[in-house]
Amino acid sequence: MKSHLHIKIVLLMAVFTVFSSVDVLAQHTVSGTVIDASTSESLPAVNILVKGTTRGATSDVDGQYEVTAVSSTDTLVFSYVGYQSQEVPIQGRSEIHISLQPQALMGEDVVVVGYGTQQREDVTGSISQVSSEEIEKYSATDPSEVLRGRVPGLQVKSDGEPGAAPNIQIRGVGTFGDSQPLYVIDGVPVGTSIRDFNPNDIASVEVLKDASAAAIYGSRAANGVVLITTEKGTKNTPLQVSYSGTYGVSQIWQDIPVTERENYQMLSNEGQINAGESLNPGNDPNHPNYVDDVNTDWQEEGLETGQRMNHTLKFSGGGDYTTYNVSLDYVDDQGTLVGHGPDYKRYSARLNTTMEKGIFEFGQNFYYTHTDEKALNYNTNVLTGGRPPMIVDLNIAVPTLSVYDESNIGGCAGTESDVHNVIVLNVPCTNQLLEGETNVDRSFAAGYAQANIIDQDDQALTYKLNVSYDRTNVRNYNWVPEFEMGFFFNNTSARLNDGQDIYSTTVIENTLTYENVFADRHNVTALIGQTYQKGTSVLRNGYSENFAQPYFKVLDNGSNKTASGEQYENALVSYFGRMNYNYDDRYLLTATIRRDGSSRFAPQNRYGNFPSASLGWNIHNEEFISLPDFISEFKIRASYGKLGNQNIGDYLYSSTVNPGVVYNYGGTKVIGSTQTQIADESIKWETKTTKNIGFDASFWDRTVDLSAEYYQSVTSDILVGVPIPLSVGANNSPTVNAGELQNSGLEFAATYRKTRGDFTFEITANLSTLRNEVLALGGEDEPIIGTGTRTAVGGEVGRHYGYVTDGIFQSQDEISDHAFQNAGTAPGDLRFKDLNDDGVINDEDRTYLGSGLPSINYGLNFTGEYKNFDFTVFASGMGDYLIHSRMYRTLMATSDYMNYHTDMLDRWTPENTDTDIPRRIVGDPNNNNRNSDREGWLQDGTHLRINTLQLGYTLPENLTSYLSISNARIYVNAQNVYTFTAYKGYNPDFTSGVFEPGYNNGSYPTPRTLTVGIDVGF
Hints:
- The protein is mainly beta.
- It contains ten helices and 54 strands.
- The model is unreliable at about 1-25 and about 105-110 (pLDDT under 50).
């Protein structure tokens, strides 16, 4: 037995030795080159691993690699950030050359849609895409700002205040309420504002514009949907580290030409003399209080150079079954107004991971941000008198007022009745006295679990669970110390408002997706899903006053303390389904249905159904049509669908009763109840019906891309608050379904790409038109009046409304021969047209004066590369609308004592009659300042803004290799370079109200920003 066992052991050892020798002999070296499949350029720093081990190599600057001690049965794994990984069996080869494909999900051939992706060729809805390359060229604190001018049909309006959220509209004003689109980040709806998120985390943006594309999001998609995909890690990739940093300065490059002391005093005196008044003491050379030693330039005193910096650090990578991406970001944007604001700081961190195990996949996305915003200190409790925004107050301040006066409490100078006799605000000093700050902590956590129940070549069945929680804590802090500032602005009691708002949203989604390909030509994808969303708002505020000095700014250190609080909840339950059908890559169909139930409506009106359908025809794949060779692709598409809107306040279908009202019956006090809030219990879903038809085409092998489409949308049962008579006894404007709007227009987008030797460039352009019409306003269709506007059936929202001028009266005879205007009308006053020929100029002579809605939006982008240099020019603009500027009209007022625009120097006088500017007279007896089309009152807003100029240089590979880094790029960037416009104000693309879109109440100027930056990969 022992001998037999010994023989067996010897034989086994011999066999093992032989096989071991064979394996050793089989080990050899594999080398090759890795290139980009789309450009054929070599790829450095590609990671090559022997599958299942940590052995491997990295490609050099020429894309060449060498892996030693490998077996012929091994498999090599090639991975590189931004490219699809490849697994290649060695199979005895000693030389393997690889072409890596760019990552498809972020490429232009794959488009992210609601709850999935589609090939660009298969898309039938209206979807526009913005790539990460475009986003990287524009430095912004708000992600939605990067969409400006890049998407046809999407309009971005914003103020220049740091941290101010822009106003986004997709295809016009579609409702009288909140018209912001829905933002969805990595598949999770996050509401109508994404200011707290970091733009540097974005990989791509898709904008869903019609019902077919957006209907899967139902009630939340009535104003369009913006899908944001963030950066993720890559499988089989070692740790990749990158840093991006910028630093720059910001300046208000526009200067409003206002008068200095002597011209101000001359114009002010002229107005008082013409009115028969005595001169203000400070402007009267014969008065002892005459001011001749002060000539304050308020723009120079109040505006300063701001600073902006942004630092981003990223870590990413992955293994066979996991990926991770971590980013840290810091933004500091110090504004351009002297004082405590506006400034904006943001600290953010994001963690994204994915894991796979068998048929299961898990992922999570956690985001935390903290922001400190110091907005403009505008406090109506102390800045009384209907003050305009601070930037207007800065420009209308009189030059005879000093900035500082140490004899006043707080040290700020103010106008005196016995000197200036005018009410203007000392803006830079006020902005240093008052303190206002908003601190925001936002935590956003989302996770998903996915099971690939069936995963075969011809069919797949996938279940996915999405869960998210979004919580925002807001602290609003406002401090007003004691101060003296002239005869009008004074505060004798230091006061503090300190409040906290908490907003939370929970979303749970279940989806089931089935895909099947049969008979090689029929491709069907079906999706069904369910969503539950709950939102909660808790609002609290504390107030305290009479603080003693030295100030310790805590509520308990004051007296007369009060507290208030509110809480709201809402819920949304939805069921949805979608089917995509593709026959032979020629005929395309998408059909969607969604049913939403909202707690914001009474039970009988809680649910709404919103269907949509779209068709597409890829003509270039058609067998019986032979297109010219230069046409690479040509697709026709059309869609129809309905979307719902419930974006109103909570509990608006329910009336409110005050149970603590005191009544007096025969001298006896009793406590009773009364209804204080009137409600319409029958309010229901606002519905938007859209139609869309267009085509997408490519020519000369994708050298030229072109798309065009026509759209029309009708919003019915618009939810809007309507005024009610005071006799009703309530103090609110109840929300009702009233009104109907229509928007229509054309959209065009084109791209041209070309490579000539070492020079590569791309030009993209887009243009869209908009026509808005009010079809109904509810009730008796009574017009809605705004600031110098009128919204009426048959016209568009917020048309300018007023009188028509007909020159200036030159003599009393002209006045006598004209329709009666006012008793005090005199030569030098404006002549208004008597439109109804009744001999009197009154309200009946008003008419529509023009549009406040831009009917044309356009954008143009040029990017070029020459060897290691790259250059970008990006411009955008709007056209065909008129602006009513509060600041300009205040500076041109013929009746007040505030400072003046230098245009006022050309006003009518007996010696200067060839002018269109009326005379100066305090009291304005002819009402020259009324809403009219007089010169300057409605200005052409058409403009073209050079948004970005950027020049970059990428360090050569031999230098980065020497520095032991994978890549590095340095660049200089200029934003808001110049605006070509006739508008005499700061921003022709300001934010405004729905019913007064052309009224600029005082938009904060957008500064010109110059930055230098660096991007480094390790």
